[in-house]
Structure formats: structure tokens, C-alpha cells
């Protein structure tokens, strides 16, 4: 006790009255200034008590978490079992929104494909999910009110395939050789530099090492379709739908129809479209971005997209990508 009296008494304003009371014998304890017993046993006992309290707190908290986790798991299992008894899958936290109510005319076989695609997407099996969603999308029995939902799902599962090293048809391994550059590798494989960097997690295209392996898409067959009346730009890969963005062509017939190719990519916000020989008379036009949050159709022939949308498109499609305006 002397250790605490000598150490805390002159230093702690909060503990000072308490120790003075002990010193005066108010609580039945009388401080003896000639007591020479060592103070370290008291200090050790104090540390043991504090450590025991901390240990009890940690154990109780851990047990509480375990109980909560078990309850959560039990609830999830109960939900799955209940859903299975009803003949459908239990909805997960990441489950897509349900089909519109008006799509109740969808055939049972198509509903089964729809459910299988949802399961694959929830399990992050994006390659299988894309295959299943495409089968649903291309089925002539798919109701029109469900088509937009399927398009959203296709974009959700396809973009992770395009922007990561996840396996998908057309992806190969490439070993960097002496004299290589990211732009050269991308050009030789029909990709954009942005996509090669994104797939492989490269932040600086100038810092690559000979012998390092990259994952690349080998000459992917991208194509773009601009729908003037609907006001949209749709991206396809191997004729399979990828994603749709809103777009704003010229009013009426100001934007010409026909076949074009991406002539130059002026990243991040503009594509120059060059007409093919069959409609060369219409001349070049631009697919360009705008800062306007609510863009409108313009008087010119150019096609306007929101900046974020065209930046995403430009990062995916390389030069010479075919573009159809209809």
C-alpha cells in the first residue's frame, strides 16, 4: 500500500482525498510511514485483477458473437428450407429484383432458365451466368417487359468478366517480351490499353517486366449498335449483348443511318466514326460526351452520351470496331 500512497498521493488530484482518508484511518486502514514491506506484490495483484477483467470481457464478447452468428445461420437455413418447400430459391441479399408483375405470361421453361442464371450470378460464376442470361435473352418467348431486366443482368455479369482476370472464352495468357509496351500488346490483340491494364491490375503502363504474364482477350469481336428512335447505344461481344447506355442522336434524321467503324479513339470522351464505303457520302460523325446532366437531342448529326457512359465505352472498344446506326 505504501507504494500507492507514495506514488499517487502527490500526483493524482482525483485519488488524493481517497488516499488521505486511508492515511487517516477513516476506513480502518492506517498508513505506517515506517512500514518497509515491498510494494511490488500489491502491484502484481493489481495487474492480475485487471488482466482477469479484460480476459472475461473478451471471452463474453466472443461468446456473444458466436451466439449471434449461429442465430443468423439458423435463420438463413430456415429461410432456404422454407423457400425450397415452396419450390423456389430463397432470395439472397444480392439477389436481383424480381421480374415485373406483367411478365407472368413467361413460360415455365424460361422461368427455370431465369432462376438458374440468377443462381449462377449470385455465386459469382459470371461465365456460366452470362451463358444462361444470353440463352434467356435470345429466346423469342421472352416477354418484352422482362427484356430490360435481362439486359441489366447481362451487364452485371459481363463487365466483371471484361475487367478482371476471371476466365471467359477468348482469354489467353501472354508473356511480356523485350521491346513490348502495353499499348503494343493491346493493339496486337485487338484490345484497348485501358482494358489490358484493368484486367491485370496495372496502374503504370511504363512499369512492366519482361517475363511477366498477362491475361488478355485475343481479338474480341466487339460491335456497337446505335438506335436513334430508342435513344440508346448497345455494346455486343461475339453478337451477344453486353450493355446498353442512353444516347442522344440528332433530331429527326439529322444523324445518318448506316455502317461505320471506330476511326479514332479520342479518350476519354469521344469516338470518331468513319463510314464504310457503302455510305461514305454521309461523312464522319462523332460519338461524344457531355457535361450536361440532362442532355437533349441536338440539331447536328453527332451522337451525345453522358461523360461517364462514353468513358466506359471508350475503355472497352478498340479502333475499327464496327458501329451500326439504325
Can I get a quick summary?
This protein is an alpha+beta fold and 326 residues long.
Walk me through what this model shows.
With 326 residues, the chain is α+β, with helices and mostly antiparallel strands. The chain contains nine helices and ten strands.
Write the layout of secondary structure elements.
Layout: H1 2-8, H2 16-23, H3 40-85, H4 108-122, H5 126-137, H6 144-163, E1 171-175, H7 182-188, H8 193-200, E2 213-217, E3 222-227, E4 232-237, E5 240-246, E6 258-266, E7 270-275, E8 285-290, E9 303-306, H9 307-316, E10 322-325
Parallel strand pairs: 3-10, 8-9
Antiparallel strand pairs: 1-2, 3-4, 4-5, 6-7, 6-10, 7-8
How are the strands of the largest sheet arranged?
A: 5-4-3-10-6-7-8-9
Q: Given the C-alpha coordinates, what overall shape results?
A: elongated
Q: Could you name the ranges where pLDDT drops below 50 across 5 or more consecutive residues?
A: 1-29, 72-104
Instruction: State the helix count.
Output: 9
Give the amount of beta strand, in percent. 15-25%
Task: List key phrases describing it.
elongated, eight-stranded mixed beta sheet, disordered N terminus, 326 residues, two-stranded antiparallel sheet, Membrane-bound Lytic Murein Transglycosylase D, Chain A, 10 strands, alpha+beta, single chain
Amino acid at each position: 500500500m505504501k507504494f500507492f500512497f507514495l506514488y499517487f498521493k502527490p500526483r493524482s488530484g482525483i485519488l488524493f482525498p481517497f488516499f488521505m482518508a486511508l492515511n487517516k484511518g477513516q476506513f480502518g486502514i492506517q498508513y505506517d510511514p515506517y512500514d518497509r514491506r515491498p510494494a511490488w506484490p500489491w502491484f502484481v495483484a493489481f495487474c492480475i485483477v485487471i488482466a482477469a477483467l479484460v480476459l472475461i470481457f473478451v471471452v463474453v464478447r466472443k461468446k456473444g458473437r458466436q451466439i449471434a452468428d449461429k442465430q443468423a445461420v439458423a435463420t438463413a437455413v430456415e429461410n432456404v428450407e422454407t423457400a425450397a418447400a415452396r419450390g423456389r430459391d430463397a432470395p439472397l441479399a444480392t439477389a436481383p429484383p424480381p421480374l415485373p408483375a406483367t411478365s407472368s405470361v413467361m413460360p415455365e421453361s424460361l422461368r427455370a432458365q431465369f432462376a438458374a442464371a440468377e443462381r449462377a450470378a449470385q455465386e459469382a460464376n459470371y461465365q456460366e451466368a452470362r451463358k444462361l442470361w444470353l440463352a434467356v435473352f435470345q429466346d423469342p418467348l421472352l416477354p418484352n417487359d422482362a427484356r430490360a431486366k435481362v439486359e441489366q443482368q447481362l451487364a452485371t455479369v459481363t463487365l466483371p468478366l471484361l475487367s478482371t482476370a476471371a476466365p471467359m472464352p477468348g482469354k489467353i495468357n501472354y508473356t511480356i517480351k523485350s521491346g513490348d509496351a502495353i499499348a503494343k500488346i493491346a493493339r496486337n490483340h485487338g484490345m484497348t490499353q485501358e482494358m489490358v491494364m484493368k484486367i491485370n491490375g496495372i496502374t503504370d503502363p511504363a512499369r512492366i517486366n519482361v517475363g511477366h504474364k498477362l491475361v488478355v482477350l485475343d481479338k474480341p469481336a466487339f460491335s456497337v449498335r446505335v438506335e436513334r428512335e430508342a435513344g440508346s447505344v448497345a455494346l455486343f461481344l461475339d453478337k451477344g449483348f453486353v450493355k446498353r447506355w442512353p444516347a442522344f442522336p440528332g433530331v429527326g434524321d439529322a444523324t445518318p443511318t448506316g455502317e461505320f467503324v471506330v476511326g479514332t479513339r479520342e479518350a476519354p470522351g469521344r469516338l470518331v466514326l468513319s463510314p464504310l464505303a457503302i455510305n461514305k457520302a454521309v461523312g464522319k460523325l462523332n460519338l461524344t460526351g457531355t457535361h450536361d446532366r440532362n442532355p437533349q437531342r441536338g440539331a447536328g448529326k453527332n451522337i451525345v452520351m453522358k461523360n461517364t457512359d462514353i468513358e466506359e465505352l471508350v475503355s472497352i472498344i478498340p479502333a475499327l470496331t464496327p458501329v451500326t446506326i439504325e
